[in-house]
Amino acid sequence: MKSTSTYLAFLTLIGYVLVFLAGKWLDLIQFFKFNQEIDSRKKGYAPLSRDLEDFYIRRMYTRVQECFNRPIASAPDTWMDVIERVSCDRKTLIPTKKTRRCLNLGSYNYLGFAAKDVYCTPNVVESIEKFGVSTCASRVDCGTNILHLALEELIAKFVGKPAAMVYGMGFATNSSTIPALVGKGGLIVSDKLNHSSIVVGAKASGANVKVFDHNSPSHLEKVLREAIVKGQPLTHRPWKKILVIVEGIYSMEGEICRLREIVAVTKRYKAYLYLDEAHSIGAIGKTGRGVCELQGVNIDDVHVVMGTFTKSFGSCGGYIAGSKELIHYIKSISPAHLYASSMPPPVAEQVISALKVTMGEDGTDRGIRKITAVRENSNYFREELRKMGCEVLGDEDSPVMPIMLYIPAKIAAFSNECLQRNVAVVSVGFPATHFLFSRARICISAAHTRDDLDQALQVISEVCDICQLKYNPPLRLTAKELARLAEKERLL
Amino acid sequence: MASTMLLDLKDSVMAFLPDVPLTDAVIFGIHIHGHLLLETLLVVVICYLLLQQSYTPENRALTETEIDQLCEEWNPEALHPPITDDMEMSTPVLESAAGPHTIVDGKDVINMSTADYLGLVGNPKVKEACNAAVEKYGVGACGPRGFYGTMDVHLDFEKKIADFMGTQDSILYSYGLATTTSVIPAFCKAGDLIIADDGVNWSLQNGLYLSRSKIKFFKHNDMKDLKAILEEVRKEDKRKKKPLNRRFIVVEAIYQNSGQMVPLDELVRLKEEYKFRVLVDESNTLGVLGKTGRGISEHFNIPVETLEIITAVMGHALASEGGICTGSAEVVSHQRLSGSGYCFSAALPPFLASAGIAAVEILEDNPQLLTRLHRNISIVHSKLATIPGISVGGDKLSPVIFLHLQKSISFAEDSSVLQRIVDLMLDEGVLLSVTKRSLLDNCKLPAALKVTVTAGHTEGDLLLVTSKLRDVIEKVLR
């Protein structure tokens, strides 16, 4: 976890307190001026949202809402048309006809399949013609077609597992598979910063949930030891099974899972490992096969591999890969397989085509070039940001890199100043992150050219100066010191 | 009593110590008659006892080696139970679009299993809209709605649905199954009260469970039972004064698990009387019921604002994918920050929103689609009602017709008999399906064979299907 200086933490806290007090003050004025309750609640009915939640939205979120939910009028490609919005009442934002061409540093377009593609798009159009837009049925009714089977085979081959199954939505992949694997009497040990879909799945499972410190194998070990010794709460019976859930790349941190050490721990304590490769599949590893390939972990040591098609493959949906029996079992019990409409055929076709390109099965080397490009672009960009003096999180090779903002006022300032200069970035604060660690998040794509990146770096540098975000300024050496360093280097 | 005993005790001690010099001592003018000795003795004993350490059971932590050993001893269950025969599912694999006719194993079959109620799969207008969208936007949205995943078509579709339904606003989810699962926990938290039908589909069940609210179930589609529960709640309220909590009744307009229709007029009367809000899942009624396909409120001629939250999946009549929730501006805007499936999931692929817009436009322009659908439903209903050995469940307006065995044994047994019928029907060139139930599903309704009727079927198709079904059922049940 990041550590923040006391001074910054104090400033951040003051920022929140000021916004809070200003909001309360405005509420008070409104109350006296109009002598009315703030919400017009129906008599006899409780308000739809809780007071604090309501206050947060009205007085805090609304202040910065213009940097979220920005609609676009094009594909989420490296350059996109962001629709400008105006507000008449400071509460609602209304999209206008005007757009602004911006460099996209926000979309999860790691391999650059987001826009029209020479190989994928014609296939997708053909699949619409042949299979229609939707199947209108669940996988077990009449929602399975040959594309689904082909995709399941292909993704299993890509990740290196004997079998796989696909879902129509990434979020539902987690939220409906986890309850199928663990239930009452089982334990889920989950990373502190796991995605909301995992949290929802764990909650829905009815199993006990324990959390370990973010990306800390030693704390995981501690939690496991304690859990195994103590057994289930109240009954003290031993746990039926323990499922450890981690992510390949943490989307808000840019950090890559320390999978090698985590595998060692889970193996030692006989816990099952569930790896969510939503952001890592396609994006990291020499041939894009994710965190296992990057760290040289045997995929057989990970019992359940999950991933999504939304990010690297520019489509939608998710997959679960594992042993043949495991997939057979999940298919027989998972509600998303039995009840939900299956993956629309064009969506499946897009994944198949994108996977074929990635694996080099389209007869070109575009795939491997894309994978190399996203890695080189990411490392270049991260390095340059660090040199600039920004506080950048995340590991090498990871295409996700948060720039720390800390102070809440900077969330909107950073995002808006960048947009003014035609660079679209994502900035987030509480409740998506810890309230002390507001950040801007950059996602790099294989489709970004070096020019794009240099332009973005220039803009970010400029905006960082305005917002005073260079928390780690580069060392300023005097001429004398420089000379001494040069001398040293010469001697070596 | 005690004092006499003490005196006795004193006497006996005195008897033992007659000649001790202090027995008759006088201290500060008080004759102590031997008290001193006895009391000093007692004080010494008390002091001794007080100074003794109280008994503490040994309370040491386990050593590392012991923990290691315990970890060594622990043996987890397998990740999944062994594969058994009843996990086996015969799934037809389609080789073409899931229209009214489709190809399975190279053979043309009549598809009575798709929920494409309006027959829009393969519609040229929808296809055209999708092709254009794919060319313009690509396939995926590559981000959640908050972070550049919102395209103009998403906003257009949200407006289109709200205008169509006559509500203030609507919100688009990227998957049908995740819609109600997110909507319910967005509004209901611990301490709130939900009264739900006990036959609701899994997505709603999951939403109810995730909300952590207090949940009471009423008997499937039984308004009398609902009233009894509401009355019970009112009584309890009178007994205990508690702060006002959010209260919802959760129902489906036409139930996914039984095809029954909720008596909305009765429900609305109850909800108004007892001051509950209502959530209606219109997945099987949007684009099906009512003169113009606006769903159950139009069918019952009830103003749509009466229903606070309306949800629907887009994978049925709209022949797309995704989910919608529509209602007042407050209901919708609240979800934009609280709906977990909205905030934390990638946005719906834009071409599916385009398909949705095209579907609503087609429905608005072609009201005859509904007439054809209603006619088709009534044809199949009347033909199936006379087949011996089975009973037709569900409302007579439901596009999904549920056939139950009259001699029902258990869910599994019924399923296998019905599956045999389905398999034979597939050989005859008709694709049907049997209700499947996940072990995670709490619904207790009986197994059924589902015949889904769409506007795309011709009368000839339907007559063929019903007559073949009659033959096969007679053969199997004989």
Automatic annotation (TrEMBL), chain A:
SUPFAM superfamilies: PLP-dependent transferases
Biological processes per GO annotation: ceramide biosynthetic process; sphingosine biosynthetic process
EC numbers for this chain: 2.3.1.50
InterPro entries: Aminotrans_II_pyridoxalP_BS, Aminotransferase_I/II_large, AON_synthase_class-II, PyrdxlP-dep_Trfase, PyrdxlP-dep_Trfase_major, PyrdxlP-dep_Trfase_small
Entry keyword annotation includes Transferase: yes
Transmembrane residue ranges: 7-26
Annotated GO CC locations: membrane; serine palmitoyltransferase complex
Record keywords: Lipid metabolism, Membrane, Pyridoxal phosphate, Sphingolipid metabolism, Transferase, Transmembrane, Transmembrane helix
Single Gene Ontology MF annotation: serine C-palmitoyltransferase activity
Coiled coil region boundaries: none
Required cofactor(s): pyridoxal 5'-phosphate
UniProt xrefs under PROSITE patterns: AA_TRANSFER_CLASS_2
Catalyzed reactions: L-serine + hexadecanoyl-CoA + H(+) = 3-oxosphinganine + CO2 + CoA
Pathway assigned in UniProt: Lipid metabolism; sphingolipid metabolism; Sphingolipid metabolism
Domain Aminotransferase class I/classII large: 102-460
Entry's family note: Belongs to the class-II pyridoxal-phosphate-dependent aminotransferase family.
Protein name: serine C-palmitoyltransferase
TrEMBL record, chain B:
One annotated GO molecular function: pyridoxal phosphate binding
Record's keyword terms, sorted: Acyltransferase, Lipid metabolism, Pyridoxal phosphate, Sphingolipid metabolism, Transferase
GO annotations of cellular component type: endoplasmic reticulum; membrane
EC main group: transferase
Catalysed reaction equations from the record: L-serine + hexadecanoyl-CoA + H(+) = 3-oxosphinganine + CO2 + CoA
Superkingdom of the source species: Eukaryota
Family in the record: Belongs to the class-II pyridoxal-phosphate-dependent aminotransferase family.
Protein name (Swiss-Prot/TrEMBL): serine C-palmitoyltransferase
Organism of this sequence: Ceratodon purpureus (Fire moss)
